[in-house]
């Protein structure tokens, strides 16, 4: 796993040992950032369920102003911090060791891009989207990207966000939500 583009291009990233995280493939990461090309520079990026931090680090490498990484697993938090140090991007990052849903309930920050890649088959992506719908922290022109296994997808009845794009890359689906009433 490596950083694909930007200031940290080519830097290798550490993996979290064991089966607890599922790192995003370079192919999916590149596809996501091709879609987010104009959204990423100077953005405030939230990497929710951060895992290795690869997505938020890619955003920083491509010009995001700041990235916040939220991860519950202590071992993954250590890997995120190590990956930030290895890429020289620590100064632009905040790493939070804690529960994603508690963070969403308590934060008063606004983000331009929110990337959600939770453990599979637990319905956590839908729970996160509903939590964001109840307490919107996305900037007016922002985008939420959800990374899931395609069979997990279900239409959501949201008040604040609309599904604007959905793409499948092998066993990974990316869903893009933007502000706008669904009714």
Return the average pLDDT rounded to an integer: 94
Catalogue the unreliable spans: none
Counted by DSSP, the helix tally is 5
Largest sheet entry: 7 strands, mixed
Radius of gyration: 15 Å
* CATH H-level superfamily: Vaccinia Virus protein VP39
Strand content: 25-35%
Distance between the termini: 40 Å
The quaternary organization reads as single chain
Looking at the overall shape, the CATH architecture is: 3-Layer(aba) Sandwich
Under CATH, the topology can be stated as Rossmann fold
One letter per element, helices H and strands E, the order comes to HEHEHEHEHEEE
* Major β-sheet strand ordering: 3-2-1-4-5-7-6
Q: Tell me the count of domains.
A: 1
How many strand segments? Answer: 7
Structural class: alpha/beta
Give the overall form.
globular
Report the top-level CATH class: Alpha Beta
